[in-house]
Amino acid sequence: MKITRNTPEQLILADTPWLIGIMLVFFILAFAVAGLGMLSQGGDLIWPGLIFTLAGGGMGALAFCLFVRRVQVILDRSGGSIVIRRQSVFGYSQAEHRLADLSHAEVESTTSRSEGRTRTLYRPVLVLDGGMSAGRHPVVAAYTNGRGPQRLADAINAWLPAAPATVDSGGQSA
How many C-beta atoms lie closer than 10 Å to residue 129's C-beta? Predict the structure, then answer.
């Protein structure tokens, strides 16, 4: 996930998984081409070619549908809103929250153990302390390693108090 706009009025975070999407398309094409090559030879290779095409290409297509999701988070000071948009092969969803309800952003972690190794993964979450949406709202569903989640939480927290200065022309003088 990266920061695509950072102005005093708007902070936009976006995640478009181009790399995994392109890799899965090549995976699907590799199995489809190999399977179709077997099918074109005929004879004893018809069933293996058909299985290779449908099973290999099908697994790649299923992985594409499950893992390729575009996420966009818009924090809009002028509109007083937080909009979280998600788009995948299965459709589009949008959740909207009041910016005034956003307390801060933080990093959520999970620990997994496999083969004697302990690994900690992270994801950024928005903490809403008021309104109908009170609670912790993950920006992305997946956990990851690296500094990305902390960098995003820091950017959100730095943007929150940076409201543009207003001029008070109706104040009293001392």
Answer: 10
Radius of gyration of the chain (CA): 23
> According to DSSP H, which parts of the chain are helical?
18-41, 46-51, 57-67, 148-159
Which residue type does 159 have?
W
Segments of 44-101 assigned E as strands: 70-76, 81-88, 91-98
* Burial (CB count <10 Å: 0-12, 13-18, 19+), residue 71: buried
Record the pTM: 0.73
Residue 27: which of 48, 51, 46, 52 has the closest Cα?
Answer: 52
**Tokens standing for 86?**
């998600």
**Distance between start and end Cα atoms, the chain:** 50
28-33, long-range: CB < 8 A, 24+ apart = 28/56, 28/57, 28/60, 28/61, 28/64, 30/56, 31/55, 31/56, 31/57, 31/59, 31/60, 32/56, 32/57
pLDDT tens, position by position, 73-122: 999 999 999 999 999 888 899 999 999 999 999 999 999 888 888 889 99
Phi/psi at 74 (nearest 5 deg)? -120, 115
